[in-house]
Amino acid sequence: MRYPFRTRLEWRKWVVPEPLRSRPVHRWLVFPHSFTDDIVRALAEEWRLGTGDKILDPFAGAGTTVLTAKQLGIPAVGCDLSPLATLASSVKVAKYNMDELQKAWSSLRKQVKVRHANGEAKAYPELVRSALPGKKLATFHGAKSAIAELDAPPRVRSYFQLALIRQIPQFSNAVPTGGWLSWRPNRRPAASLADTLSVTITEMIADLGAAHHPRGRWSARSADARSLPLEDSSVSAVITSPPYPNRHDYTRVFGVELMFGFLDWEKTRALRYQMMHSHPEARPKRPSSDGYSEPRFIADAIRQVAQHDERERLVAMLHGYFLDLYLALREVARVLRPGGRAALVLGNAQYDGVPIEVDKATALIGRQVGLHCDEIRIVRQRGNSAQQMKVHGRTPARESVVLFTRTA
Ligand SMILES: C[S@@+](CC[C@H](N)C(=O)[O-])C[C@H]1O[C@@H](n2cnc3c(N)ncnc32)[C@H](O)[C@@H]1O
Fold first, then answer.
1. How far apart are CA 391 and CA 341, in angstroms?
2. Displacement of CA 87 from its chain's centroid (Å)
3. Pocket test for ligand 1, best of 275, 277, 325, 358 (most atoms within 8 A of CB)
4. pLDDT digit string (tens) for 53-80?
5. Rounded distance between C-alpha atoms, residue 347 and residue 244, angstroms
6. Domain 5-95+222-248+286-406: assigned CATH number
7. What are the residue ranges spanned by the domains of the chain?
8. Distance between CA atoms of 226 and 329, rounded to whole angstroms?
9. Which terminus of the chain has fewer Cβ atoms in its 10 Å neighbourhood, N or C?
10. What is the pTM of this model?
11. Which residue is closest in CA terms to ligand 1's atom 12?
């Protein structure tokens, strides 16, 4: 196969999350692996999508695709396995009544100042207790209980739940750095939870005041991208970014948020196993993969990686990653209408100097499921880690947007 490469490095600023941190509503929660709304806008224009279309993001993350679709007035649905991702996405696209929000906030604000739940805080998993020791967790738990008891509709409670979870990084001793959690014991926050929460909610309410509310349907649900709860041919476009095969485990990076807000230790572990095989601890239950054939150059690259010692789990991860991509692409092809378009933002990896060309493999695997690759748009060249650079020299890895059309 000849690969339809095209370089568009002016898109590089759109595959990093920074611009989202100052953009209304998007900034309510930004993931370190989010792309920006510019990508969704550019593709919607390129594909001439409108109100009669429907966009899907099967790896919705913080909800950039569904929220941007809402801002453009194009119906959209997002799916993700992580409850933190589905909360963020659904809160960002929900419709609110400002009076209802203001009323709930004035009752909640009083509670947050006075409620501390020392006893109940002991029931949280150890990671949460270590990250938010002593009074910190008691105050967070008090706020969480006050939100749960609010006399308000579920979407209003979810709105405040997201605002509360957003406070965790300011208080936690466990800090995400790149794809990992590192510990900074005895961090002292500059302000109280009531104060930081108040700043966040004031900003969130102001964002809503400026938001445009078109008519249409936007939602996010909990689902596995390998078996989507959607009808055949029910969407006209897919704009998404699966995890990259970089070993980052979202259930660890967001372990405090997940176990404070949603899941106990066992359920967090179950989520870790079920996530896409982009980290070595995954061991997902998958639908049948009949029809999958691993691209030969990927099999060769993995064989080279396998020559190094103690690589079993990495090797299993890489085989599993491409199998998962096949299953996710098969679902994309099934739910897309014929002629529908798909864009996947992907990053190549390298291990021991061996390049793992995810973009090319995706183009080939797409062919196995009825997706024609129109273009591999190279948008960024990422440098390798300092450690790898010392041994293997500077060998940048591509970040690309792989564009498909669903064949009839
Ligand atoms: C790269 S992030 C998506 C970021 C998103 N584009 C944004 O702008 O925030 C990948 C997402 O895939 C989710 N994920 C991992 N495995 C999944 C699976 N099997 N099914 C659905 N979602 C999954 C993760 O929870 C994560 O939120």
1. 41
2. 11
3. 275
4. 999 999 999 999 999 999 999 999 999 9
5. 6
6. 3.40.50.150
7. 5-95+222-248+286-406, 98-210
8. 8
9. C
10. 0.96
11. 59
